[in-house]
């Protein structure tokens, strides 16, 4: 039934009434929101009364999508090496993309032999693993209970541990936080680690009572992935390298997508210009969603992906890791996406493919430093300009980068740990 409902929602999500009903659901009912606040207060009180402040702080990490793991893994690594912390890493079957549902297991467990894999249909031992660990804090990888087994839903875990969440994407717009970080999940989070101060402030305004009572905190202590980005260097490639990240939905309510408008033209451009290489990185939901809505057939999808296998300098990259692709890219061509915010951190040129959606907040400031385009001819013209060494927006772009992101990207994991120690009651 759940799979049927998800398929129906994907198919009907472009209808305004359906989107409106979805938003109301994600905001949560007043009574349920009040119960969630009481649950946080109860858990905080129990921990305050019963904990031995001298023991190691127990922190569990729930990972269900390997691409999102990059956003928090440096924090996990720092905690695992610190004597004041005890960690548990659980890898959970991802069901959003049947083709790649095992990537979390293979990639994560290869990188971390200590990770424990959990399948969607768990046995009794699996279902007790987290609770038996008696965690003080649990980091959720993403804010979607519907993809987790019931015993790992946020409202269940919040009964015995403080939930932590680090944004899996740069929100940038006020719309995104209400849509991607719904209240039905956020109401169960004790410590929210935001990508920017604007996002933190927005969440404080959403949960005034929780923050006033001290059982909720919204913090802007740095975004871990940005510290990792600085460690990557461009691979040797004499060609001008284009990274393309179109949006996964054409619905205007989710800002729309240029995928169908540009998918053949950008491919033809890269084939024709021999000094160019192209990497297409589809959002993990892109093909899944378009197949569900009927905008793309399986045959059409297979044929399009096959087009990227004919030349070495053109590829479709669906690897879980993307930081090396960021380092290799000379320019990002993208619809509105969290990737725009992250790529802007690098200070490289960015071609923004407008879809008509209204943008706000930090995102609007970032967009002031990009090359705004409204049709393929403008995209092509900008690519030609950049590949011939002209970049008139560079100075403005770098100034905005400094303004938005600053320059303090050291010791971000240590700041996370300091906040957990404060919440635990261990003040150093």
How would you briefly describe this protein structure?
This protein has helices spanning 2-12, 16-27, 30-50, 66-69, 73-80, 103-111, 124-133, 154-157, 174-180, 183-186, 197-206, 208-213, 224-229, 259-272, 286-293, 298-307, 323-328, 338-344, 361-367, 376-387, 394-405, 412-424, and strands spanning 57-63, 85-92, 116-118, 137-140, 162-166, 189-193, 217-219, 240-245, 276-280, 314-316, 331-334, 350-353, 371-373. 47% of the residues lie in helices and 14% in strands.
List keywords for this structure.
2 domains, 7-stranded parallel beta sheet, 14% strand, 428 residues, Rossmann fold, alpha/beta, 13 strands, 22 helices
What does this structure look like?
- Helices cover 47% and strands 14% of the residues.
- It is built from 22 helices and 13 strands.
- It has helices at 2-12, 16-27, 30-50, 66-69, 73-80, 103-111, 124-133, 154-157, 174-180, 183-186, 197-206, 208-213, 224-229, 259-272, 286-293, 298-307, 323-328, 338-344, 361-367, 376-387, 394-405, 412-424; strands at residues 57-63, 85-92, 116-118, 137-140, 162-166, 189-193, 217-219, 240-245, 276-280, 314-316, 331-334, 350-353, 371-373.
- The strands form 2 sheets. The chain has a 7-stranded parallel beta sheet, with helices on both faces. A 6-stranded parallel beta sheet has the order 10-9-8-11-12-13, with helices on both faces.
- Helix 5 packs across helix 22.
- The longest helix has 21 residues, at 30-50.
- It is globular and about 70 Å long.
């Amino acid at each position: 039934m759940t799979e049927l409902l998800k398929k129906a929602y994907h198919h009907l999500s472009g209808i305004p009434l359906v989107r409106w009903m979805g938003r109301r659901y994600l905001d949560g009912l007043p009574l349920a929101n009040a119960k969630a606040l009481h649950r946080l207060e109860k858990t905080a009180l129990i921990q305050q009364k019963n904990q031995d402040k001298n023991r190691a702080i127990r922190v569990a990490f729930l990972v269900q999508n390997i691409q999102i793991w990059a956003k928090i893994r440096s924090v996990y690594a720092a905690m695992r090496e610190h004597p004041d912390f005890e960690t548990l890493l659980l890898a959970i079957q991802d069901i959003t993309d049947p083709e790649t549902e095992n990537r979390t297991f293979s990639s994560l467990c290869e990188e971390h032999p200590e990770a424990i894999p959990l399948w969607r249909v768990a046995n009794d031992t699996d279902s007790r693993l987290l609770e038996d660990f008696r965690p003080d804090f649990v980091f959720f990888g993403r804010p979607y209970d519907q993809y987790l087994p019931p015993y790992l839903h946020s409202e269940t875990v919040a009964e015995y541990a403080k939930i932590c969440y680090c944004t899996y994407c740069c929100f940038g717009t006020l719309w995104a936080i209400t849509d991607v970080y719904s209240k039905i999940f956020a109401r169960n989070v004790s410590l929210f680690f935001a990508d920017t101060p604007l996002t933190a402030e927005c969440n404080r305004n959403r949960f005034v009572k929780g923050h006033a009572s001290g059982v909720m905190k919204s913090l802007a202590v740095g975004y871990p992935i940005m510290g990792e980005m600085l460690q990557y260097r461009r691979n040797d490639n004499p060609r001008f390298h284009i990274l393309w990240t179109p949006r996964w939905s054409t619905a205007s309510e989710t800002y729309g997508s240029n995928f169908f408008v540009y998918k053949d033209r950008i491919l033809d451009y890269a084939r024709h210009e021999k000094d160019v290489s192209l990497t297409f990185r589809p959002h993990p939901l892109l093909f899944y969603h378009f197949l569900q809505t009927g905008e793309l057939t399986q045959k059409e999808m297979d044929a399009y992906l096959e087009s990227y296998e004919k030349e070495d300098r053109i590829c479709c990259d669906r690897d879980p890791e993307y930081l090396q692709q960021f380092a290799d890219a000379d320019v990002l061509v993208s619809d509105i996406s969290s990737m725009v915010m992250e790529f802007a951190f690098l200070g490289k040129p960015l071609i923004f493919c407008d879809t008509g959606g209204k943008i706000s907040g930090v995102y609007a400031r970032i967009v002031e430093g990009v090359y705004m385009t409204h049709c393929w001819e403008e995209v092509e013209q900008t690519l030609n300009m950049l590949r011939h060494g002209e970049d008139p927006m560079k100075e403005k772009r770098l100034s905005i980068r400094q303004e938005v992101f600053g320059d303090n990207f050291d010791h971000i994991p240590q700041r996370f740990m300091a906040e957990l120690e404060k919440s635990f009651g261990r003040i150093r």
